[in-house]
Amino acid sequence: MDWFGAGGNGPLIVARAIHFAATAITAGSLVFGAVVAKPALRSEEAEARLFRARTLVVAWLGLAIVAASGVIWFWLQAAAMSGLSLGEIIESGVVSTVLNRTQFGQVAEIRFALAMMLAVCLAYDRFPLASWLALAAAFGLTVAIAWSGHAGSTLGERGNLHLAADGLHLFAAAAWIGGLVSLLLLLVTVRRNRTIAWASLAQAAASRFSTLGIISVATLLVTGMLNAWILVGSFHALAVTEYGRLLMLKIVAFAVMLAFAALNRLWLTPRLRSPGKGLDALRQLTRNSTIEIALGLTVFALVGMLGTLHPATHLS
Fold this sequence. Notes:
The chain is an all-alpha fold. The chain has helices at 10-40, 45-82, 86-92, 94-101, 103-123, 128-143, 156-192, 198-231, 235-240, 242-271, 278-306. The longest helix has 38 residues, at 45-82. It starts with 9 loop residues before the first helix and ends in a 10-residue tail after the last helix.
């Protein structure tokens, strides 16, 4: 299998995709907790505590996958850079060279430090300051990925613009796609407890997340166009290169996600409080969120492939 032109980079693509998805889910769960769940569940202390505990489990699990996939990504990238096998890079000292003398290695060290900071903050999550520091560490952990990809190799003022756009693009994707996991978790939690005003809570959470989604989507559109202008350059390159065709697949997946998000906001969320229709709307909202998550994971898989290919501007 040629992995859409990626050659023998299949394991590297998988490691990158898993790492991006885990980072997004970790950061997205913290963003969701701060700007959606906390205000939406303010009147329900028991549900708030339960959801907070579950969110913490998601964040810990996500961070563990980030760490494991990050190590695998680093080893595979070091092997790709050196042209040696995984066994040979241990004996040759390539790992130390990549870690200390390449931008990829230096970024990996910084992100490892941010992951450790995030772990400490999650361990002391009961303290308000730790919660905000965890959010800041998650932001840095996500945005720093930009320096590991094509944006990190773009030179000059265009490079600075590319890094800023790519960093914001990554965090907006985490807030939306990663936040969807927490939204699904919250909807399931609310749906199972019929002793609370579930319709009101579900509508409040869905409405707040919808606002977060609008901000995220607007950011994704602007930064995505900037990234495409830098990495693709023309409609011709978009159509005739492997990079361009994969990017179009990503855009299609994004558009379908956007359609589901619009349906959720304009049709299902207002129906949550409708007599006789609220429970059905909640079921559909839960189902649609699951579909959006699947599409989001598809986007991360495509991003994993795109990072292993030369940009279309180099090949058009």
